[in-house]
Amino acid sequence: MKSYRFPAEWERQSAVVVAWPHSGTDWAPRLAEVERSYVKLVDAIARRQPVLVCVPDAAVRQHAAALLINAAVDESRLHFVEVAYDDTWLRDSGPVTLACEDERGRHHRLLDFRFTGWGGKFEAGRDDRLVQSLHAAGVFGDASLESVEFALEGGAIESDGRGTLLTTWRCLHERHPEATREALTERLKQALRVERVLWLEHGYLEGDDTDAHVDTLARFAPDDAIVYQACDDAGDSHHAELAAMAAELAGLRTADDRPYRLFALPWAQPIRDGERRLAASYANFLIVNGAVLMPAYDDPADAAARAVLEKAFPDHEIVPVPCRPLIWQNGSLHCVTMQLPAGLI
Fold first, then answer.
1. How many beta carbons lie within 10 A of that of residue 283, not counting itself?
2. What's the fold here for domain 13-341?
3. How far apart are the C-alpha atoms of 16 and 51, rounded to whole Å?
4. DSSP characters for 187-227?
5. Within the chain, what is the greatest distance between any pair of CA atoms?
């Protein structure tokens, strides 16, 4: 029987998958603006590895390809697949991939959790079928597919690749209000083949409709490190909650009972869309082969965030990607991407 594990994001990847925004998604009112961010994002990924671009039809495929090629994105690393989707948050509707290595090579298992539109907030029927559709199209080669009747989004979980999972109680409890902490811990351990689950009780961002996904708050980094979103403005509504989360992180221990090395990310000035505050988190970065793609918000804190990530990921280039258009829909660049481990495609 194969022994699968949940890889860390900084392990070698075969590709990153995205879904192109179009007029049938919630991006329609600001489509040109968000497409410019997607072009920058896809270009940053394609400089280092292939990008699998989901499109709903041939017309969107042709349009997206033209934008990318006109921006001098490496065409040889772009792979388009036509598939139905409701929106573009592939971190949550895309596959969570387990990996296994044995004497016959590297094997993969795609976990297809239920995607409920973040607890029924939005229509998500096509997104819930996305992994199955991509698998049926042969995108993932001979990787096996495991359907898991359990609501879980990829943005809600962080793996260190060595058997430890980090998540938030607020999100998982909202998805499964009748389940106890112990029951949810066992369910996560079983589904994701991990040995430990670390729970955060605190941490949230205004404008975030995911119920406190961990990928906007705290992220694993190599060598027993955690990078987290801090708030140094005592007058900000987030200050107490993020300070409490920082204290929780300081109390966590590694599998061999040592404290984690902690890296606090700076706090951007409030960004608003009218009266609505947007969730601008520097913790929503994406790790690719040799680089960390950092959300940039045209804020003075961008440079300080880059400096923090350079310390946490000394073997990676830190690449800012403009993300103000993305947070209009309450997510950033990690939310719209899903990495695929080496050997999967």
1. 25
2. L-arginine/glycine Amidinotransferase; Chain A (3.75.10)
3. 5
4. HHHHHHT-SEEEEE-----TT--SSS-GGGTEEEETTTEEE
5. 58
Q: At what angle do helices 58-70 and 31-46 cross, to 10 degrees?
A: 70
So where are the chain's domains? 13-341
Gap between the Cα atoms of 302 and 296, Å rounded: 6
Instruction: Describe the strand order of the beta sheet including 158-159 as a list of residue ranges.
Output: 158-159, 164-168, 196-200
Residue 1's pLDDT band, with cuts at 50, 70 and 90, is low
Instruction: Decide: 68 and 43 in contact? Cβ < 8 Å.
Output: yes
What are the tens digits of pLDDT across the range 267-284?
A: 999 999 999 999 999 999
State residue 102's pLDDT score.
Answer: 80
Tokens read off for 18: 């995205």
Report H helices in 11-102. Answer: 31-46, 58-70, 90-93
Q: Tell me the catalytic residues.
A: 335
**Residue 267: both structure tokens together:** 């706090």
How far is CA 11 from each of CA 99, 253, 254, 275, 341, rounded to the nearest angstrom? Answer: 11, 22, 19, 40, 7
Q: Can you read off the two tokens belonging to residue 262?
A: 């902690």
Give the 3-state secondary structure of residue 328.
coil
Tell me which residue has tokens 């991509």. Answer: 134
